[in-house]
Specification:
The structure is a homotetramer. By secondary structure, chain A is of the alpha/beta class. Chain A is 50% helix and 14% strand. Chain A is built from 13 helices and nine strands. In chain A, α5 links the parallel β5 and β6.
């Protein structure tokens, strides 16, 4: 990899959403030299002004001259859609550079993108993150990577700018597969905790006592330790991670399971339940709000 | 409650199984005065000798003169079966005494037992425990109780002898309901982790890396933090908690859900999957071995 | 069995509901001598007037002097509730008479009722029916019986008055078990046809053509041949058999499956889906209306 | 469409399997002029000799000069794989001719194939069949077609040679969607009948009586009327339609449901159960043998 300038790493960041924006901020300082692009131009302009970063007119423009292009978009299809055309990433990416896709995407699509890029000598790493907005702000995300060992190592300085735990877990697509499974476990742990606590609430069991016991016992999970006490029992339901996205991720995990021919009744059923919940609660609901569907069906409130 | 002697609490312990025996040991010292009974007499004799406790000839004999009778048996039906007859607990239990049932039992059966006891002025507390053999040995169990506040408070000295976190969570049956739901969450978290990790293993994802990431992320649970790394990945599968018992507990939770008219597709499906696994793996298998059924179906080993 | 009068069979009919009333009419003629009782007295009075039958003041009064008492009630618990007390059936039933329970009931409760009756020398036959209101009117019901061969044979004249296909299928409870499984198959065939047709409708497949093909192929069932074309596609949804009752029957089949320790993921999941649909659609909805829940989730109409 | 000769229709038949061979026979007589191709050349040679048909050396050779090319292969991917290359169908198909795909295939793949053909002026009709070997022999298949009205009408003489009920049910892919849903209903009706009858068998209900009752009642289906009495109860299990293929079809239906965003818990779970059964029973098992998995789990035989 040739660098644009000694010790400087040229990075383009595509997608300044809730997670993307605080991630990009960590790349707005030396040794990084940052260009940004966002579908809604205003966001990019504001970011550029606040962080002294170049605001690119097109994805191609952002990619031009970059050592690394980072994408952080809703789906793999959004990444795919930015590749082609005179304004697309491929028109700007140079041989030897790397596309780091932080989207919570699909392994199969990533493998196709990687193959397309390889034709031009461009490298690919899928690198979805977990840790939420606050993790992104603190540069403390977990980054799970899929790609060649060498590509991963070269990208480490970039990944470590926003990541605390940065792990290579397999070939291209492995990061996306792992992220989808992690989120499927979250989805299942959440739905089953909802069912179980609704049962206990109707049976007259004190929910705070129940959570205390479960969290000292074998049934505990991140959901019972954090999500339920902070968001459900308080009825706060802050909108930090949309149900629509968790439903999408659960769908990806279910698809990978089918692709791998792994019988997975729980994952497949859970994916359908999230599809139902998404239909019932709409596009803006937070993921923790699925509990409201269970509560409606049960005729009880978990609190 | 009148005490047999100033400051002494007379306790009978019924059921010296894997968990019951180390629990009973904490009651073999002052201020407790302990009698024990076990279906297999040899176990009781050995315990009596080692701990200087009275070995009762029958449940009635154990109960006679006791302030508290503690039962720790496989199922609520075993408790029910010990009540009646000339050698049964009812023949020995005196008015004002308390039956503390530490069995992982059924709320409905417990309510029936409590009603039967109430006719004779005997109190009832369901008080199942979690924490395993090691928690029992260290006197560090979590004890989840169902029963009247007053009955709970009076039983506290006994419960604290083996319990670190002792909680009253509702009326009679609440302890059993909570224990069953905790174990159902364990069952679901375990099965779904098995499905998800089998998918990742087949997709070429490094399992240690995957666990590291999940345990730093939103999908983590006691299962991914403890059970899978210690028992599955190592292929150790120590036999500490039988699948047959977890399947029973899952069945209880599913039954409570139906009783409470809570639609619970995940819990009901999970209960069936554990029924299948129990059939496939037999009565002696440890609960973590359910993963082997998933592995067989998937054609992969999680390691 | 002694008869009240040569060639005359004294029958009491308890429960003049949608199915019960047209059944009872067939017993209002010689050789039968009919007494009726109904919770809502007005219904019994109107029936008595129209059919020249004795209207009993209480269940006991109806049972008194009867060779056969027929119950046709919503649930086994309703039958159980009519047994005891000074006005209950047991106060009127004489030794040697037979209780024929046409309720779509529960095998376990029926076994308990049979045992209670046997103490008094009274026989029991569970004899649920299928064929709907029109089958009842035409005396063309299918009657599935559980009980001793001898009891069944003696009851044949009564059963044939309203039944065309009258079958003994096993011991006490067998009729109820079979009825519940039949209705569970109806429930599953209906729900899966709803899912499948919703998919086809969204995919732009002509539904009439689809039904024509399915009904000439391996996927056909009573649901696709009758229920869907007559009730769903026409949007008629006549209220002939309440969803609440089908959900109850599905619940019974699911319970029998668990009692028999048969892993039954499809039946258990279907039972939960009907619980959800019942919650969504309320107590008055017809069973075919479950399709509306699927349609709402899918965002399409099957027509 | 120009014809090779007045009143003669030139047809190529690709895939002389269990269903394909008897279908092709109906096209070996005037007005049809038949060429055949089969992966295993010996089969094609034997067919050509017995039916006086031209045996083509390659798919391209078969297609050359044909008005219609009929494919009848295991999966859509097999059809796709025969298109390209110097020996592929595209090398032989002429503009204005029609590819009729009788494979039980995938709507999405068919739409892609249709688009590829359209570039060359070749038409496409998906036309999967039902009715089995005997239906194929008698020319009495049901043929469900997806494609333009005009393409369908022109293909009718060919389709009617082996089809009794020939229906156009929508655009390209509609035939494959419908076939998959029909087979999914078969799959679900079969599995649920297996569960229900296993329950009844364990509960001591006479299975012949049970089938008699169900088949006179609302729970009846092609499965209970035909498949179970003829194949399961008799323990004959003839191998006529492989479980592997039904599992594939169920998987297609489940995929179409997801593509259409229809929440479909029963279909998704059924698809997983067939995946498990396929793993347990292997590639050669007949579809009715799935009952053996249920029987093993239940510990009972349905007979």
């Amino acid at each position: 990899m040739e660098r644009t300038e000694k010790n400087t790493i040229a990075v383009a960041f595509i997608g300044l959403g809730a997670i993307g924006e605080p991630m990009a901020k960590h790349l707005a300082e030396p040794p990084f030299q940052l260009a940004v692009w966002n579908r809604t131009r205003e966001k990019a302009d504001a970011f550029g002004k606040a962080n002294d970063a170049r605001v690119a007119a097109t994805p191609a423009d952002a990619a031009r001259g970059s050592d690394f292009v980072i994408t952080c978009l809703p789906t793999s299809y959004d990444v795919e859609a930015l590749l082609e055309g005179s304004e697309g990433l491929l028109a700007g990416l140079r041989s030897g550079s790397t596309l780091v896709d932080c989207t919570s995407g699909e392994p199969g699509v990533s493998r196709a993108i990687a193959a397309r890029l390889a034709e031009r000598g461009i490298r690919f790493l899928d690198a979805p993150v977990s840790g939420g907005v606050s993790g992104a702000e603190r540069g403390a995300l977990t980054v799970m990577c899929g790609g060649a060992e060498e590509v991963f190592e070269q990208a480490l300085p970039v990944l470590r700018s926003f990541g605390e735990k940065v792990v290579r877990c397999g070939p291209v697509g492995a990061g996306h597969a792992l992220k989808s499974v992690n989120n499927m476990l979250l989805a299942i742990n959440l739905w089953s905790a909802g069912e179980g606590l609704a049962v206990l609430a109707k049976a007259g069991v004190d929910i705070d006592a129940a959570l205390g016991v479960i969290n000292a016992s074998s049934g505990r999970s991140n959901v019972t330790e954090t999500l339920v006490p902070e968001r459900v029992v308080t009825r706060a339901f802050p909108r930090t991670f949309r149900l629509a996205l968790l439903a999408k991720d659960a769908g990806i995990a279910a698809a990978v399971a089918r692709e791998q021919k792994v019988p997975s009744p729980l994952m497949q059923l859970a994916s359908e339940l999230y599809r139902v919940a998404h239909t019932e609660l709409g596009d803006l609901a937070d993921h923790a709000e699925v509990v409201k569907v269970i509560e409606k069906w049960a005729g009880v409130e978990i609190s």
